[in-house]
Amino acid sequence: MSSAGHILDSIKRMKANRALTARRDAFNIKEANTFKPKAESEFKKYRFRKASPEYLKGLKVQLSAERKRELIKQTIILLLSVAIGLIIFYSM
Question: What residues form the membrane-spanning segments (predicted)?
């Protein structure tokens, strides 16, 4: 049989893989997957700056202006693509 070599090779590979996982010094899988709680001193303490009300108002105005500009761009692109599509469709 021509496939006997492939079967023996796969059996050898499975045995070798099992032998690798059984070695504790090469793959210490059980210890790597355990959960170790951190001490309180290991947690990072973040300090966030507070935004002033004037900055928030300016940011809202800027974002709304950008949103309006983007909406106008998208509308123009949509209308142009529809117009070009209609021109191509009716010219055929």
Answer: 71-90
Torsion angle in degrees (nearest 10) through CA of 69, 75, 76, 82: 170
The pTM for the full model equals 0.45
Number of Cβ within 10 Å of residue 42's Cβ equals 7
Distance CA 1, CA 8 (A): 12
Q: What does the pLDDT look like over 60-82, one tens digit per residue?
A: 999 999 999 999 999 999 999 99
What are the structural domain ranges in the chain?
1-36, 52-92
Q: How far apart are CA 64 and CA 3, in angstroms?
A: 69
